[in-house]
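FW: tagging you since you asked about this chain on Friday. Here's the raw sequence from the shared folder, copied in full. Didn't touch anything.
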Amino acid sequence: MRLAVAQIISSADLEANLELIRENATQAKAAGAELVVFPEAAMRAFGHSLRDVAEPLDGAWAEKVRALANELGIAIVAGMFTPGKDGRVRNTLLVTGPGLDTSYDKVHLFDAFGFTESKTVDAGTEPVTFEVGGTVFGLATCYDVRFPALFTANARAGAQVNIVCASWGAGEGKAEQWDLLVRARALDSTTFVVACGQGDPETIGAGPAGAAPTGIGHSAVITPLGSAVVALGGKPELAVVDIDPSIVDDVRTKLPVLANARQF
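HL: got it, structure written out here
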């Protein structure tokens, strides 16, 4: 199947971010993609208030993304924020398109490297998979990539592709860790990994928003054997790639890590 990775740089402006989604989804559809993946926090970049923009999945922002996906006839995955418990928000991936409507709430919260996501974000609890054109996808968000069990759970639920939407924090060694982790999760789960991160704001002269994880780019599509189909740099970019999910069964025959795994 043909899919697209939209490495955008979102801002505080919800309408401007919707326009970025429209522009990239339109280009992806014109290039023949069935699915386009946007980063975590596509609704609003980190470093700005999230609580005042969080809305239900049937709220105005999500409905506009939903309408766009149906207008274009393409599946869209995009990061947004929905209401959570105790005044916090949920870090949510909206998945929408013709005949498709689901969502995933980030399970593993980024309480690391001096950032405490759990202060403002309410954790999700369940893995989520969905299907487009006969291919099954699993979902993950940013810090989730450090936890192999989510990826293998998605694979055991039928996923041939794991999607990771991120706004990866900058810092010493962080780009190398991201590259290593997305490859490792492909090998752990014997799935393709579609890793879409926010682009690096410094590449457009915006600079980082304090300590907030605003993105470094390095989006990539990885095969089930850990090779990169495409790997981007830091600048905003749309990558359209073809993958063959039918090879997953063959890879799992050659490298049966899911079948051989033991629980301790």
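FW: The CA atoms of residues 83 and 214 lie 21 Å apart.
HL: agreed, and The chain has a mean pLDDT of 97.
FW: great, closing this out.
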